[in-house]
């Protein structure tokens, strides 16, 4: 799933290439991906892009028509950029392409989604805040107003596992499964630790890990074309997606906990005092 650093990389890339270009055509290949009808998506045709922005994991292309093209790539979505867009027609239901956008210089991009579970979402909106997912977002962890005390306030009283808190977009915007694994590994903290029980020292450590991990990942993604962002993300991971490999900090084996549709990765030596977490399908912690 693209998370904040990759989405920011896409925003930076698009902002440098489509600002000032005019949309000549918007083609919807998966009607289920289009979540709005007013304004109509066709209203973007003839509009000139004035900038690109990120809201959590949402990408927002603003236009001089007062309409924003907003999209969320979900778990299996991606953006494919073409300096010269192919003239071939897209056939609804016969392609992984959900949306195609063409510009007046011949360039364009496709939004694609792999797999059978389709969650990619596209919106045409007069204001990004009209998109429900954006309106519900918590603070951005890289914003200068996101201080240690603000972070501590978000954790206070939450008797939920810290892994879930970090992933909850209504609490903190932009962090998902992958970077929450990385943040917790840097902070040397169990994903099952309860947010409300963290000590001041643990909050300090987690806050620093969050800010540093996300900032470093954003810097790594900066300037890379969309085709290179996924590989850059994988290379930067210490534990996420590395089950069975060696922890780069302590040399222990990276382990996984599997859920219905995803997994988390962690190092027992670094994060849980050597305790191995059971598969959540067993609903218990191995002693």
Query: What gross morphology would you assign?
Result: elongated
The appropriate CATH architecture of the largest domain is: Orthogonal Bundle
CATH class of the largest domain: Mainly Alpha
> How many structural domains?
2
**What name is given to the CATH topology of the largest domain?**
Helicase, Ruva Protein, domain 3
Total beta strands: 10
Radius of gyration: 20 Å
Report the helical percentage: 25-40%
- What fraction of residues sit in β-strands? 15-25%
Find the structural class using helix and strand composition: alpha+beta
Roughly how many Å apart are the termini?
32 Å
Any low-confidence stretches, pLDDT <50, length ≥5? 283-287
Largest sheet, if any? 4 strands, antiparallel
* Mean pLDDT, all residues: 93
Strand order of the largest sheet: 1-6-7-5
* Secondary structure tally, helices: 8
- The sequence of SSEs as H and E is HEEEEEEEEHHHHHHEEH
Structure commentary:
The chain has 287 residues and is α+β, with helices and mostly antiparallel strands. It folds into 2 domains: 4-135, N-terminal domain of MutM-like DNA repair proteins; 148-282, Orthogonal Bundle (Helicase, Ruva Protein, domain 3), CATH 1.10.8. Helices cover 28% and strands 20% of the residues. The protein contains 8 helices and 10 strands. The strands form 3 sheets. Strands 1-6-7-5 form a 4-stranded antiparallel sheet, with no helix packed on it. It has a 4-stranded antiparallel sheet with strand order 2-3-4-8, covered by helices on one side. A hairpin with a 4-residue loop joins β6 (97-103) and β7. α1 (4-18) packs antiparallel against α7 (226-236) and α5 (177-186) packs across α6. The longest helix has 22 residues, at 200-221. The model is unreliable at 283-287 (pLDDT under 50).
